[in-house]
Every structure is written in structure tokens, then in C-alpha cells.
């Protein structure tokens, strides 16, 4: 007897369509996964968009982890758009239309915008996993380790630290998988994306701070219980935005026995571990240019009018219109 499959809900059909996007960060299409869709069977991994073979294998071997990664995809989209809300490029292209099969070129090309998205994506995956360990949402991990150093008088280690180590291990295994495939684009692009992803994870390491809770009579705080916890993703995104604004343009050239990325306009030196790099210059994002991935700023301007009054003789009124969306 022939088995008749039930038609998929429209929302899941949309998700499957998004699986054809042409980018090694196409896993961000997971942000469109319906909130009601829970991954509790291995066959559900086939319904998830944008996964390469090793990512799908990770899904099948750890279903709980994929729920966390879906949450990370939503966080990347939300955080990126909030972080760049005052700029000409406002990360709107990260939320592709539901009827589209690819990202806009600003995320496909090796621009500083794609550099930021890769860095934020890598940070967000590890950040979400680390906190899921703390909250008990992942059964394969628990609280982070207690620091080895002896705390100062009046302090003691306790609480539940964010498990950054587990987050970094599993996060990098997932986010770097597409760039390690043979058919992952040019070698220069792969080096750029791998580098920027590691910059994102380094920003996450730098965001591990000591958090404490006070104890004592009448709020005296005579003793503090402390643990290592991560800053919020929005704070990490602002750090990466600073790196985006000072990103270094690089070229792919022979260095010794192999080709490496080196700064284009600076005397030859290695690329620094904490700097974002890009291969292609970005459009100005003011004018609409579908080929370059610019949606333009028309109909989305917030105008500020200012009046200048010049002394002497008569008063001359000068109107100056500032484009808030320019980010200048």
C-alpha cells in the first residue's frame, strides 16, 4: 500500500524554500522556523534550512542543540538590526523575504558587512549554547567550571557560571562547518569568514566577566558569591560594531609557501587576531543597487532641520537637512 504523505504547513514550506540560499551563513534562515516546531526526532533535521552535511549530522546526534541554534539565529537577526538601526546599512538584508531563495549581495560578497554578520553569528551561537548550559536547557552540559584562583577576602566562588568552553567547542563545530567544505567558494573568502568568525568568538571570551550576589544582614553585603558570566549579546555586538567601523581591507597574496590574507594599504604585516577583515569595498548604501545589495535609504529617512542665523547686516536663514539614516 502506497504511503500518502501529509502536506507540510505553509510555514514549513517557507522554511524549506529558504534552504536554497546561496551563502555559507545560510543557516540564519533557521530564524524563520516556526516557534511551534520542536525538533524531537532525527527526521526533523531534514526539514531545517541551510544545513551542510556535517551540520545535519550534528543535528541528528544532538537534537536539543539544534533548538538552541535556532534560538541563536533569531538572536543574530534581532541583535544585528538593533545594532545598526542608526546606520545606512541597517542589517535589513539579514531578514530575507519569505519568497526569496538567496541573501542579498551585501552578505554574499566579502564586504565589511558580511564580516560583521559572520563575527556576530559565531559569537551568538556560542553565547546561546553557553547560557543554555547554565539554564539547564541542554542535558549534555552543565555550569561552567569554578575558577582556579583564590577569590579576594569577602568573596567566594559559587552560583552557576556560563559554560563558555562548551559553547565555544560546539559553536565553532557548527558555524565553521560550511567554510571547511571543498565547495565553499574561493579560498580567500573561506579564510576571511573563518578569521572573522574567530574574531567573534574572541569578543565572546573578552565578555566573560565576574558577576556577584551579595549576602549579609540588612543588605550589608559582608560576603559576595561570585561566578563567571557572559555579558549580554547586545554588548558584544556593540564591541563588534566598533571593529566593523575600523575593519581592515585585505588581499589574498603569497606569503612564504602559501597564500594568506594581508592588509592591502599597510606595510605587509600579519592580520591581527582581533580585527575584522574584508576583501571588497561596500557600496554607500544611499542609492538602491540590487547588484551590490543596497536597498537605498529612500522613504526611510528621518530628517532633522537646523537653522543658522548669521550676525551682521541682515539675518539669513539657512536650512540644513540631515539624513539620520546615514549614520554620519
From TrEMBL:
UniProt keyword terms in alphabetical order: Developmental protein, Disulfide bond, Extracellular matrix, Glycoprotein, Lipoprotein, Secreted, Signal, Wnt signaling pathway
Signal peptide, first to last residue: 1-24
Coiled coil: none
Biological process according to GO: canonical Wnt signaling pathway; cell fate commitment; neuron differentiation
PROSITE patterns in the cross-refs: WNT1
Keyword Lipid biosynthesis recorded: no
Alphabetized InterPro entries for the sequence: Wnt, Wnt_CS
Location in or out of the cell: Secreted, Extracellular space, Extracellular matrix
One Pfam assignment: wnt
GO CC aspect terms: extracellular space
MF-aspect GO terms: cytokine activity; frizzled binding
Function: Ligand for members of the frizzled family of seven transmembrane receptors.
Assigned protein family: Belongs to the Wnt family.
Protein name listed in UniProt: Protein Wnt
Organism: Esox lucius (Northern pike)
Gene this chain is encoded by: WNT11
